[in-house]
């Protein structure tokens, strides 16, 4: 339910999107959500690899997104007999102005859903490198506790404005933390914000993803960590499952560990979205979506063959 390609996220991921879909099929995936990053719209939001020619880099982003939608629809049709492809994107709540931009992108007839994700605090990336992370800390008041509070406040702004069906890597803020396995309940203001955000998400029927990229990036647990996952489940929250892949080599990475993590929480199923009908619409109407339950044991059977 969360994936990227080098074709449409150059400098950020690798490999052609079609090759990634073919690899997913060969590994036994039956559903795959394509969620390339949405365009950014300001020079200040460019990453270092885009700084050599910022005007050209910025001008390329919207056409690249449009090309992605064309290719995603082609792949959806071409491989319909082999894999159920959902078309989405990863929303970027860099600042509140991005809310209208996400809404506009999500209105496209081919878009089934979008990931509601936070990668920035006060405009500074928090998952790129230590330099950017420290800038984010300073902008939030000079401590990681303040950074976490600001992260969850901005996440709440996103949740309220957009009600994303899937919330991406709920606790990404811990990735570059000096103590990523910290029990955040010791920070009263942070924990109150986490519980608030979880309650709001559960209230409108949103899902969290169990995202195994945290394990790939050497965290001890996937996103979200155990104490957040346990709180979410107390509220009756649902999980979908993803690797947040950035190329062929990431497909299914740490799936077994992620599934065992979910089982340790008492879960037997995860959820995916299903397009109804699975075949094409007329190109001007969105496909209807339904929720589909998938047994963790069934996924483990496939993973065991890799």
Automatic annotation (TrEMBL):
Q: To which pathway does this protein belong?
A: Amino-acid biosynthesis; L-histidine biosynthesis; L-histidine from 5-phospho-alpha-D-ribose 1-diphosphate: step 8/9
Q: Catalysed reaction(s)? A: L-histidinol phosphate + H2O = L-histidinol + phosphate
Q: Which biological processes are named by the entry's GO terms?
A: L-histidine biosynthetic process
What's a Gene Ontology MF term here? histidinol-phosphatase activity
Q: What is its EC number?
A: 3.1.3.15
Keywords, A to Z, come to: Amino-acid biosynthesis, Histidine biosynthesis, Hydrolase
Q: Which SUPFAM superfamilies match?
A: PHP domain-like
Q: From which domain of life does this come?
A: Eukaryota
NCBIfam families (alphabetical): hisJ_fam
Which PANTHER family does the protein's record reference? Answer: HISTIDINOL PHOSPHATASE-RELATED, HISTIDINOL-PHOSPHATASE
What's the protein name?
Histidinol-phosphatase
């Amino acid at each position: 339910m969360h994936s990227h390609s080098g074709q449409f996220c150059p400098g950020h991921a690798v490999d052609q999107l079609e090759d990634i879909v073919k690899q997913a099929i060969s590994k036994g995936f039956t559903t795959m959500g394509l969620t390339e990053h949405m365009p950014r719209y300001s020079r200040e939001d460019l990453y270092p690899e885009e700084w050599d020619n910022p005007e050209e880099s910025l001008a390329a982003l919207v056409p690249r997104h449009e090309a992605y939608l064309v290719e995603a629809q082609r792949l959806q049709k071409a491989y319909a007999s082999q894999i159920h492809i959902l078309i989405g994107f990863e929303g970027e709540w860099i600042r509140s102005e991005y809310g209208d931009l996400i809404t506009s992108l999500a209105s496209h007839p081919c878009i089934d859903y979008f990931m509601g994700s936070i990668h920035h605090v006060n405009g500074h990336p928090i998952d790129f490198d230590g330099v950017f992370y420290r800038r984010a800390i300073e902008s939030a008041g000079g401590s990681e506790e303040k950074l976490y509070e600001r992260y969850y406040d901005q996440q709440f702004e996103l949740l309220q404005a957009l009600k994303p069906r899937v919330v991406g890597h709920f606790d990404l803020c811990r990735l570059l933390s000096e103590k990523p396995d910290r029990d955040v309940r010791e920070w009263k203001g942070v924990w109150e914000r986490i519980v608030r955000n979880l309650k709001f998400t559960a209230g409108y029927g949103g899902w969290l993803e169990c995202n195994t990229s945290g394990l790939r990036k050497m965290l001890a647990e996937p996103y979200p960590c155990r104490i957040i996952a346990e709180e979410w489940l107390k509220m009756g929250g649902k999980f979908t499952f993803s690797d947040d892949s950035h190329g062929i080599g990431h497909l299914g990475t740490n799936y077994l560990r992620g599934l065992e993590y979910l089982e340790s929480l008492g879960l037997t199923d995860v959820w995916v979205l299903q397009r109804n009908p699975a075949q094409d619409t007329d190109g001007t109407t969105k496909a209807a979506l339904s929720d589909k339950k998938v047994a963790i044991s069934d996924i483990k059977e496939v993973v065991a063959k890799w």
